[in-house]
Amino acid sequence: MATGNRAVVFHGTEDMRVDTVDYPKLEMPNGQKAPHGVILKIVATNICGSDLHIYRGSFPVPEGMLMGHEMTGQVVEVGPDVEFLSEGDLVSVPFNVACGRCRNCRARHTEVCETTNPDASCAAYGFNLGNWDGGQAEYMFVPYADFQLLRFPDKDQAMEKIRDLALLSDILPTAFHGLMEAGAKPGSTVYIAGAGPVGRCGAAAARLLGASCIIVGDYDQKRLDLVKRNGCETIDLSQDVPLTDQIEAILGEPMVDSAVDYVGSEAHGIGSDADKLMPQAAINQVMDATRAGGATGVIGVYGPDPLAPTQEGKEGTFPLDFGKVWIKSPRISAGQAPIMHYNRELMMAILWDRMPYLSDMLNTKVISLDEAPDAYVKFNEGSDEKYIIDPHGMIKH
Amino acid sequence: MATGNRAVVFHGTEDMRVDTVDYPKLEMPNGQKAPHGVILKIVATNICGSDLHIYRGSFPVPEGMLMGHEMTGQVVEVGPDVEFLSEGDLVSVPFNVACGRCRNCRARHTEVCETTNPDASCAAYGFNLGNWDGGQAEYMFVPYADFQLLRFPDKDQAMEKIRDLALLSDILPTAFHGLMEAGAKPGSTVYIAGAGPVGRCGAAAARLLGASCIIVGDYDQKRLDLVKRNGCETIDLSQDVPLTDQIEAILGEPMVDSAVDYVGSEAHGIGSDADKLMPQAAINQVMDATRAGGATGVIGVYGPDPLAPTQEGKEGTFPLDFGKVWIKSPRISAGQAPIMHYNRELMMAILWDRMPYLSDMLNTKVISLDEAPDAYVKFNEGSDEKYIIDPHGMIKH
Amino acid sequence: MATGNRAVVFHGTEDMRVDTVDYPKLEMPNGQKAPHGVILKIVATNICGSDLHIYRGSFPVPEGMLMGHEMTGQVVEVGPDVEFLSEGDLVSVPFNVACGRCRNCRARHTEVCETTNPDASCAAYGFNLGNWDGGQAEYMFVPYADFQLLRFPDKDQAMEKIRDLALLSDILPTAFHGLMEAGAKPGSTVYIAGAGPVGRCGAAAARLLGASCIIVGDYDQKRLDLVKRNGCETIDLSQDVPLTDQIEAILGEPMVDSAVDYVGSEAHGIGSDADKLMPQAAINQVMDATRAGGATGVIGVYGPDPLAPTQEGKEGTFPLDFGKVWIKSPRISAGQAPIMHYNRELMMAILWDRMPYLSDMLNTKVISLDEAPDAYVKFNEGSDEKYIIDPHGMIKH
Amino acid sequence: MATGNRAVVFHGTEDMRVDTVDYPKLEMPNGQKAPHGVILKIVATNICGSDLHIYRGSFPVPEGMLMGHEMTGQVVEVGPDVEFLSEGDLVSVPFNVACGRCRNCRARHTEVCETTNPDASCAAYGFNLGNWDGGQAEYMFVPYADFQLLRFPDKDQAMEKIRDLALLSDILPTAFHGLMEAGAKPGSTVYIAGAGPVGRCGAAAARLLGASCIIVGDYDQKRLDLVKRNGCETIDLSQDVPLTDQIEAILGEPMVDSAVDYVGSEAHGIGSDADKLMPQAAINQVMDATRAGGATGVIGVYGPDPLAPTQEGKEGTFPLDFGKVWIKSPRISAGQAPIMHYNRELMMAILWDRMPYLSDMLNTKVISLDEAPDAYVKFNEGSDEKYIIDPHGMIKH
């Protein structure tokens, strides 16, 4: 058994390093025993756009924090109150830490578990949300394992599709949740703000669920090309044309049934404002792009942000065009996705080959743990790749 | 048959008068024939809080416009394509004008009918939303009558309960819609922002649907007393105590399952800000008061408002605490209520005596058409009465 | 600490006795440790209509089985993996045994937990469904306590309302579930087949949720009187009049929006068939009574029944009028209720006094453990009382 | 303008002929004027499996009735109360006749319109359900046209895809409805009973909505091959193996999330019973194949059938295994599909090329009106083709 644990550690803004830390224990962040927990040997652990919030300093975390919240791993140790998992099981870890015992977890709202983060209404690994160690590492501890973990039915089959299955920990269900909150269904017209990895998962999920016209808006042509060659329409937001005009040119109508913001408060404006940080830009765009009677999802993260350009933004207040859209009967849903709501079904869709376009849209790249710090730099510069760290060299190339 | 029609007419800000205008025809605002329409003799026609927006000038309408959108009436003339209504039928008019033929109406979104207002996504009588004459009058024209009108099954029974049934045209279904959008169900805890007539209908509707703890916030003690003596808790917003602290004092928890804004952009602050017009205050309060995993309804009207204190407000942009609530997974629904979604069932609840507290909570007062201009003045000054105009003296006193 | 445990034990058809058995341990039926479990001191434990299936022999169980599945109790011992409950907590036990860890429990379908009964898709205390000891006893073991148990927020307040709160373990949420499955909502018209305790809870729940016309059908006038004096309409099924005619006489229409079968396969016919056991009678009646576009709930138990009058009935096959109702677009939902879906909200409704009619409708009678065998006899003879056993004399009379 | 109208006419069991009848008028079946109606020139009109019920005599209709309920056509005449359709528009006709004005239509339950068939709760063209002339003809009358008809946005584009769009009138939305009622969603496992045209549409719709494992059961290898080569699994029901065993061999589990009966009461048994007419076989199979917590849709038609083998079957009573499935918490939905609920979105999916497999799965064959009687014979013999009649020779071959 391993005694140490190599992990990606936050050392300060734009300073990620691979350190050797202690091997994890079946213990809660406060030191209490966790008989319900397991130790995982990590098979795949991705770098996420929200890791960049930490990297850039817009989401402050303590120095020394272990990064990572998108993990797939193999069970190597089970606590005495784990009944339905065994050593060797290959599992996906939902990024929300959830107890399965509180009112919200019982109601499937695992994204706002009431117990796993005493300071707020939600918890996650590798954030400052409950002091849970992240999993960009060789090993990690996961509590409430019977409740939380999604076991793949066949390990060999799963390893064949691991690049796709690795997305089940966060961004594929997260993207899917945005579409569900925006009311997307077979035949819907969809606008997707942002062609980063989550937005591209949104495009893939929209295809899976049978959306008709899927339009993705971004500034980066390489990212847009990934979705364009896989059955989606694209809008170049650096063009100086109103969004609804661009939608109308594609769809014949200026607004869609379902629009989702996959960007959040690090958004920029359209056209001549494309270089300007405008924290409210993306959400106002998706509200604008949603037809009367449609719905809007907000997956992009909003919060008090020390790097925001205004005092209001630092406090989490944004100037929203709510009065302009009120007459359209807006329905707006936001927040973290309850991964467990969706990951099993999305796993089934992957295992039965219903998303053949997923890998190409995501443009996943498998890297070693040591390559992770560089990957943060490249991802922050706008790479069109989705990085999957393979700490033990278990993924076929 | 009558030849003229006495009606409440807008002559300018704070200037409503009763004029004699032409008797209505089976004609659309653009002059086309309306074989699907009927003429109603008005039995009850209420003054609504949103009529005050017009009265005060925050919702501009043309001089000479006929006021009123909360009508109950008797069919006196039917067009050649009306099959299921007959002369003498007593009916409730949903305030939304809806064709029953467009995509949104087919999908029960009559609040955003695509055809009855060529300028916007919704239409209403007695507003500048499609040029439909209002019904604070002796007679009115209603198009698409088979689709739109709710017939009371027994005229005599209905006249006995007419003060309650008169609320079906707008404020009772509107208030109920707010609760539905906020996810309220039996046992829910509910916060209601505003004890005006719609907020009081919200309190009554929350009782009907079996909510547990129903808390109403307002500044006006007389209005609060109406709900307090009918099974609700109250919060005096002029006290300098944070809203969540006041909720916690009542409920034992600082936030509720479902919170509804029945105020809109004419809101004021809390405590020392109670005298200050703060257009974003009510919506921020209800988002603040909603628990993680709960939902928020916004029935209060937001829109570009020429009387708003800021340029942003004039354009319909509001500084919302969206970042502060994003972590709670907010679900926010806003806009006009699709009255037809609810009015039939609420009628049944009234007819079977399931809302015995309704009249007392609303404190309805029946007045003549000539008393209407004065009632606008009193309502604007904060009266705790709900005015029902009885143009033909048909309602028992 | 107690060493023995007095409990109601099944000794054979129509033979219930109070025996002294072993004090419960934190152990699963198969003898494994249950660190997630607790021991409860029982405060209230009701006799249920489905206990009569065992009593009569239509649901076979092993001799020596401990009876009871409707328990309210006080925590007296907690396992090492119980985090959110403490000694002294007063809790309601959902009658479904549910692990909180399987696919169905994660999806809120605790009524079909996949792990707590290896022989079937559901488990319950005091049945032959997973070998769980029942709780008509002084003490009992409950597994997965953090997940399963509903804690009352204030013990003294709860003891004041214990007769109502005792119904949260099964029949009130069960009855409510039937209405939800039948699509009941504010203003709905409702038909309730059966005025036994669950049917009467259905009537009470229909009132809570704001149903308009609530019609209850039964043969027993005493039972019907309990609902009639609390705001419901009644139908005497021993009259020789078709059900839809009787509904029409009350409602003005022959069918209701929502109909629920609270009877099951021990049903009798209507009128001249009132004395005849007709296992399919109740479900055919509720399908008949549901309007096109409405929905039907089947809470009454159907299953292979050794006492059924036909071979088909013994095997669980029933002659249903499916072809007669297909044209009405029937929606039929059946099965056990997932208690945890509803018990928290119904507790809140009780605690905030929203069901003042509940006690009178149910006609609850508190008895000692020693009186339980007699109560089985009386209940089987059609008593209009709902028996609550108080094993420790803790309930005020 | 045409003066006569050539149409497929029912002359008796197994006797369909093409006759010349009167050109249609803007008139209701009872002779009243229909200002809301249009006359269509038929472009495509399919033969449906339910037409075979009439052909065989299991659904009795009057001699001389015009057949057909799956029409696509061009508007050639509009009534004076038609506002949103013009001559030349190409439209799909939902097979349900629906007024858009009654309670059920207002609630989107157009499949149980309360006014268009005075004898029952639903109406359809070309059946004995309201006396509406069918549309296997050159021309037809459609009432309530603004409400009912789905206009294709671009006529040329639509004519390119007319073989797929012709399915929007009935079988594609009908099949989709079955899946919705069975709770199917992305990732669901699905069992489809029957590989006739509707079952094959069900398979196609399951692919569209992202189902994972889609299993189709039938006896006819040619029909099964059509779905097998388009991404579905198949079960040969003539094999003597229990259905759940066959499902388990494919899926690894014996039951699916969603099972839909696309067969109805003309079903046969499994294996050695494959040659035996067993009216209850299909519905019992789909209930058996549905997992606990799943749901079952019943699209196949059940009703009183004069050809049924038993007296009970003639009256519409079927021996169902309800007791065997009650413990699985069954949810069963049946009846005609409300086409308007789905046709617009499915049209969008077709227009945006999201169902490239549809034509091949359906194996559509375009025929002339004169070939229709022969096509009835072949279809009745189990052809694997779906016949589209092209009365004016407008469809490209």
UniProtKB/TrEMBL annotation, chains A, B, C, D:
It comes from the Bacteria. Keywords: Metal-binding, NAD, Oxidoreductase, Zinc. Residues 35-146 form the Alcohol dehydrogenase-like N-terminal domain. One of its GO terms (molecular function) is oxidoreductase activity. PROSITE patterns: ADH_ZINC. Its cofactor is Zn(2+). Belongs to the zinc-containing alcohol dehydrogenase family. This is Aldehyde dismutase.
